[in-house]
Each structure stands twice: as structure tokens, then as C-alpha cells.
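Review form for a predicted model. The reviewer records the input and the model, then writes brief findings.
Reviewer: anonymous (R2)
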Amino acid sequence: MDRQPKRPFRSREWFAAPGRSDMAALYLERFMNYGLTPAELMSGRPIIGIAQSGSDLSPCNRIHLDLARRVREGIRDAGGIPMEFPLHPIFENCRRPTAALDRNLAYLGLVEILNGYPIDAVVLTTGCDKTTPAQVMAASTVDIPAIVLSGGPMLDGWHEGELVGSGTVIWRSRRKLAAGEIDEAEFLARATDSAPSAGHCNTMGTASTMNAVAEVLGLSLPGCAAIPAPYRERGQMAYETGRRAVEIAYEDLRPSQILTEAAFRNAIAAVTAIGGSSNAQPHIVAMARHAGIEVTAQDWMQAYELPLLVDIQPAGRFLGEHFHRAGGVPAVLCELLAAGVIDGDALTITGQSLADNLAGRQSRNREVIRAYDTPLMERAGFLVLRGNLFDFAIMKTSVIGEDFRNRYLSRPGAENIFEGRAIVFDGSDDYHHRINDPALGIDADCVLVIRGAGVLGWPGSAEVVNMQPPDGLIQQGIMSLPTLGDGRQSGTSDSPSILNASPESAAGGGLSWLQTGDMIRIDLNTGRCDALVDEAEIARRKQHIPALPIPPSNTPWEELYRETTSQLAEGGVLEMAIKYRGTSHKTPRHNH
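Model under review:
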């Protein structure tokens, strides 16, 4: 098919510059040494990059090592030239001190690749949570045509006839272990049974959440996010994504045309409906800021009013296979569109509107994906809080269970209000060392607080806020206490923590002067969280804040990260990078 691109391909500047055969020869030379021909690269066909996030160090994304073959076949069949390249690995479970450091590092590396090499469009291969925002952020900075291919969740995990979800089973099994209900061997068996195949978390953790967000934003083909990694449809989706990557190169369909205010409002609404991870907050803010869009506290509060529609762990019962078979993200969006709470006119990677993509995609299982007017929970979004301890924090309300609500939020005349004695820990080592110390006198009327876990203090921000009570309380049947911190928590956690507190303690936030024994008042009706400490006493403490046990930077990147990264309220982005947008609109200088 003889097609003309809407705009000249960038690769032609490298390989077919008029009158500069010497330049073309220099740029072409080494591509020949593995079998490409000059005719291919000088043919005028688009070069489509495949940002390979799969590796042995990234097991959640490792499926992409296989999927890339189908992407390549789709690119070739559609008339493009595929070129695969690696992405910096990101794997939350094993990376120390935290994989939160890697999101911005992977972003930087991908920006330089997309900006400095002859790539006309790119397939972004996503999976483990931070691989999605890192690549979308880079696509916005460079602004070449880009399409997202999720690797998909693992198959449902089963243990002795019970659904066990990756990540979520860890937090639930820790409580059972503390209560003496299971032993170490059973703990390990439950954990391993929760991860039965290739793919990312089969719960609605951060991975599934962020891949759903990419689809809602319009960057993935409809239905892409929820297909389990081992399903045949995943390979078919990879092929179709490769084909579509060539088409968007010809159409010059860029992220800047798709990532609009409406798209981000849609994404925030969808996170509530699916019971998405609390990590969605900094990641969505980061992607929006790189796209030139401001996401405010009011945007989160508008979505807080929306209902929970998807019955999937950790907020519900089921796992990824059930979600996919029930219709996945399109079925959820159908409900939101019919209710008039999302914008169906938003442009998507198909070249059509979101509403066009959703035709005929209703839920196939109303037990898993509920109708809008019969939800699992009303008002199920992220509640934004502020007070004298921080300017911004969030609470994921879709995981507030009946026991927690009855114990802390149902006092007659003071519904949704709780006061408790603070027990303050300086990082997770301090928590693990002292949580069972009887001298602390921890009871059901305490609030567990962790500080030193933010962007600067950790560094990178750690998933440690979902602290469980002392073993003694768990053995009494008290499975959770109110928790608060300046770090994050795993998206697979079922803890209704107050987290992502900004500014963090290491930046002088209120948690830095809070002391064990202070009373904290949490009012979900007004969105306030305050230490009940006299203003004069607060002022005195601020003058004499003890040195917090903040570890020194251990690598050059940790130091650079601390110097350049914003707080979680602002997305934890490299602040100096926000001003760079559309860098591909100017071809880089010649290298020869």
C-alpha cells in the first residue's frame, strides 16, 4: 500500500537526508551487521521502537520477551521496521531501598532513546506498576506517536480451594501468622500459590491499576489492560498493537493529542470504580504534569463521590481472570459513560473517541462488574485530607471494611470521626523492632504513625505505611489500626491508611515534630487530620526538632534523586524535567 505520512518521518532525517549520502552511510553502517539492508532503512517506511521492559530482573514484565515477537510481526505486516531496545528494570518486590527510585530513572533513559534515535513511533511495554507511568511520562516529553501494550496479570491464584491474590495474600497471611492461625510453611505456600503464572499482580494492585489507567487515558487498544498474560488474546493484542503502531506513525497521532484534561479526569474516575491502588495518585499526577495538565485535590474529591463497581481484591473478592472475563476496563467505562460521569468524546489511540470504542462492551458478569446503580460501595474514591501534620494526604476508602468502620467510624453523634493516641516510628526498621514492645501500651485506640519514608527520607518513598497491629491485638481479633505516614503502601494492601503525606517529615512536615502520646483527630467529614497539640507547643517543638534518622545517599542516583524530586502530592517528579515537552519536534544535531 502506497501511503504518505501526515508529517515526514523522523528516521528520514537520519537515513535519507537529500544530498548527504555520506551522512546516511555513517548512520546506516552498523545496522547492517545483524542483517538489515540499506533498502529497508532507506525505504521511507516508519521505524517503530519497542521499549522492552521485560527481563530476568523484572519478572512481572518478563512476558514481553515473548510478546515482542508478536509485536514485531504486527509491525512488519503493517509495513513498519521494528527496533527493540531495553528499558531500565523496575521490580518493586526485590529492589532496595525501593523501586520508586527507578520510575524517574527509567523515564530519563527512555526520553534520551526516543529523542536521540531514529524512531518514528513506539510501543511501550508495561506491566509492573512503575513501568507504566515511567514510559507514559517519557512519551509526553518527547511526543512521538506512542501506544501502550500491557503484559497482563497472572492467572488467578488458588490455595486449598480459596482465591489467593498476589500481594494481598501477604498482608492477610501476616495477620494470620501473628494470630497463630498458620505457621511459616503455610505462609510460604499461600504466597507462592498466589503467583501461578507469568504476568503482573492478579489483584487490583498498582500494576493492574496503572495498566487500566493507560487504557482509560486512551493509550491502549480497548480491552488491553485486563487480558491475563498467558491467554491467547494477549498475543493477539500484541500483534494488533504492533499493527496499530505503524498506523499512528502515518497518522502522526501523538500523546499530546490524547492526554487531555478530559482523559485524566476519566482516569481518576475509573480508579475509584475499579478500587484502584493508592499509588495511582502520585503516578497520575506525574503523568499529567509531564503532559502539561494540572490535577488538583478537587479532581480527587469529585471522584471520591463515585461508587466502587469492581469486586476484585483487595477491595473485593475476585482476581484478574474474573475481571477480564466480565469485560475488563471497557465494561467499567460503559457504566461510567452511561451515568454521565466520564467524557466519551476523549480521543484515543484507535483514532476514535472513547465512546466509540465502548459500543457493545457492557459487563458480562454483574457479580464481578456491578451496574452503576447497584455498586459494592457508595463514595469509594480517595479522600483527600489536610491538617497541621501535612498539607496533602490521601485515604483509600474502598478498603474500609465493616469491622474497621464499626470500631472507628461509627460512634453515635461523631460518625466518621476518630481520636487516638499516636505511636510514632522512625522508619520500618524501628516499627519492626518495637511494634510488640509492651512499654508502648498499644491498644485499639491508637494511631500507628511512620515517618522518614518519603521521597527524601527513604529515599524514593517506601511501601511501609500499611503497618499491622501488635501480635497481641491481632490475637484479640483486632486486625487493623488506623495508620498514617509520609510513605506509600502496596497497591495490593487492604489497609485504609492515610498515606502519601506531603510535605514529608524529612522536608519539615508536621510528622517531624509529632511525638508518641500526642492525640490525633481524624475527621473524614471535613477531610481533616490534626494533632491535638497547642500552637505554642508546636512552635516550641519546631525550634528543637531532633535529628531524624535519615540515611545518607548510597549511590549517585540517590543523591541526584533527592536533589531534584518533588513531594508525592506533586507526583514525585523530577521538577527540572517538567518544562521539557515535545522535544521530538526539533531534530537533534548531526553527530558526524
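Findings: The first strand starts at residue 47 and ends at 52.
Further findings: The chain has a mean pLDDT of 95.
Recommendation: see findings above.
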